[in-house]
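CO-FOLDING WORKSHEET

Operator: S.A.
Ligand of interest: magnesium ion
Run index: 188
Mode: holo prediction, single chain
Checklist:
[x] sequence pasted
[x] SMILES validated
[ ] output reviewed
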Amino acid sequence: MIYRIGYALTMAFRQRLSLRRYNRDLTLQCNSVVELDLHRLKKQGIKVLVLDFDGVLASHGEAKLTPNVENWLSKCLQVFEAETLFILSNKPNLVRIQYFSTHFPGIRFIVASKKKPYPDGLLQILRLTRRAPESVLMIDDRLLTGVLAAVLANVSARLITKPFTAFNKRPISELFYLSLRTFERLIF
Ligand SMILES: [Mg+2]
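OUTPUT RECEIVED:
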C-alpha cells in the first residue's frame, strides 16, 4: 500500500503534464459513463473499453449496478463486442466477479498482480487483445489511479467527473474518496 502511494506520487510528478491535460481538457472528460458517446468513440478508433468499477459503474463498495448502468452496458455490448470490454478495478471482489459472470458473461474482470496506477492490468489487456495502445480506452474517476495507469501504459483515457456516490449509505468512505478526488484535481 505504502509502496503504491510512493509509486503513484513519483509517477504523477513525472507525468504531471499528461495528468494536467486530463484534468483540464474537457474533451478528455465525461460526467458519467452513461453520457459517453459510444459511436463517436468507435469512430475515433477506440476498439477496447476498460472500465473502473467504484465511482464509474456504481458507488463505492457496491457489488451490483443500477438498472441505468445495466442498460448502458447492454448498449455497450451492441456497439463493442463483449470480448473487447474489460473491468479493471482495484477491488475485484468475488461478489462483483460473480455478478458480472451472471449478468454480463462476456465482459472480463481483470485481476492484476499490481493495482492501478501500476500499468500491469492495462498491459495484460493489451497482451490479451493485441490492440494498439491508443485504441484502448481506460475510463476512471481517479487521476492518480486509473488515468495515471493509462498514461503509463500509453493507452487513451477519459476522466469521469461526476462519479456515482452514496453519501447516505457510506458517508465516511465517500467523504474519503471525495477528498482524494478533490485533492488530485487541485494539484494538477
Ligand atoms: Mg474509481
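REVIEW:
The domain at 2-187 is CATH 3.40.50.1000 (Rossmann fold).
The chain has one domain: 2-187.
[x] output reviewed
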